[in-house]
Each structure stands twice: as structure tokens, then as C-alpha cells.
Amino acid sequence: MTIRKLLKRKVARDFARDKSGTTAVELAMVAPVIITVMVGVIELSVAMFINTVVEGSLKDASRLGLTGQIQEGSSNTQALVDMLNEASIGLLDLTTDDVTILVYENFAYVGQGEEYTDLDGNGEWTPGPYTHSDGTEYPDGEPWVEVNGNGVYDEDFGVAGMGAQGDIVLYTVEYNWNFLSGQMIPILEGIIPMRASIVVRNEPY
After folding, report:
1. What is the end-to-end Cα distance of the chain in Å, rounded?
2. How large is the angle between the packed helices 22-66 and 76-87, nearest 10 degrees?
3. How many CA atoms lie within 13 A of 60 on its CB side?
4. What DSSP letter does each residue of 149-164 carry, written as one string?
5. Which residues of the chain register pLDDT less than 70?
6. Rounded to an integer, what distance in angstroms lies between the CA atom of residue 54 and that of residue 195?
7. Nearest partner of 161 among 43, 74, 40, 32, judged by Cα
8. CB-side exposure of 43: number of CA atoms within 13 Å?
9. Could you state, in order of their start, the residue ranges of all structural domains in the chain?
10. Which candidate, 131, 154, 151, 133, places its Cα nearest to that of 141?
């Protein structure tokens, strides 16, 4: 065996045993995962903070109607939105379309609607005229159980407005929180649907 071959073998053996730089290689492999997890934790924490802020500020904002400080008018919802946006320290830009205010006769009706028979199995009430697969015609839509006597199907018993003294009012805020690192959750395209609500009874005023 020539000296050249011996040198090549020695160099190859020394190179295989040399562990210098392995830490840098391992870090390069692990760093993307660590950074992704850290950013995800930060993003989730911010989203939870925002949701907590919205819930708290919604409670404070609902007192505008609860105590009768504002009554029926075009500025009611905007006043609530302004309070919510201010409380979010600029992280949210809500509009009146993101806020829903519904009045109910009693607490049992909150978020509820009239029961119906889902004849077509699509998971929602089908308005009329509707013809079932067996040929039966339903001019008023799928059968439902009339509760409030208004003659129409009510998906939700709530009526838009601030209500009067003693009324039950549901305040709901629905908005999308945009993750700054949206590519990390491609299924949701970086958008997380958020929702906050509170039910109150208007005080005498």
C-alpha cells in the first residue's frame, strides 16, 4: 500500500471521527421547529389576550344599554364598537357589522329558534314552496313548531334593538383574528374566527 493511499485513508478516518461543527448542524435542523413553536405560542397568547379584552370591554360597553345611557338610534352600535376598538389598543378594527344586539322576551329564548322537521336533511330550515321527495308539497316551507304566534319560522327569537326596561338583551361580537404568521396554519389561511357575547337584563331607567 502506497503512502498516498495511507494518507487518504487516515484523512478519511480523521474526517469521519471529527465532531466539530455538529452543534451548528443540529441547530440548523432544530431551529426552524423551535422558532415555529415559539412564534405559535406568542401568536396564540396574543389571540387569547385580544379575546379576553373583547369580552371584558363588551361587558363594560353593554352597560350603555343596560342602564339606559343610550336608547334606540343609529349611533348605539357605533358607540359600542368605538369602546371595543379603544379597549383593544389598536389591535382590532371592528365595524358595526361585527356587532349584533338582539332582544328576547326571556332568558330561555336566548340563542334559540323554533324547532322544525328537517325533511331534506340539509341541517337547516328550508323555506317554501318546498316539495318533498315523496311528492308532498309544503308551501310555507318545512314544518315547524310555532312558538311566538307570528306565523313565520324564526331561526332566532331575538329581535334587533337595544330593548326597553327589563328586556333581555344579547350582545355578540364576531370577528376574525389574523395571525401574523398566517402561513403556519395554512388550513385556516392565517385567520381564526373569534366570538364573544354577553346576556344582560336592562335595568329600570
Report:
1. 106
2. 150
3. 13
4. SSSS--S---EES---
5. 1-25, 65-75, 180-190, 205
6. 9
7. 74
8. 18
9. 20-112+156-205, 114-153
10. 131
Q: Do 72 and 162 contact (CB within 8 A), yes or no?
A: yes
Q: Are 66 and 200 in contact (CB under 8 A)?
A: yes
CA–CA gap between residue 40 and residue 31 (Å, rounded): 14
Give the 3-state secondary structure of residue 136: coil
pLDDT, the chain, mean: 77
Per-residue pLDDT tens over the stretch 28-85: 788 888 887 787 788 778 888 888 888 888 887 777 766 666 555 446 778 788 888 8
User: Are the C-beta atoms of residues 44 and 179 closer than 8 Å to each other?
Assistant: no
Q: How many Cα neighbours within 13 Å face the side chain of 144?
A: 24
Query: What amino acid is encoded at 150 in this protein?
Result: N
12 grid coordinates: 478519511
Beta bridge pairs of residue 116: 144
Residue pair 175/94 in contact by the 8 Å Cβ criterion:
yes
Find the length of the chain: 205
Side-chain half-sphere exposure of 182, counting CA atoms within 13 A: 9
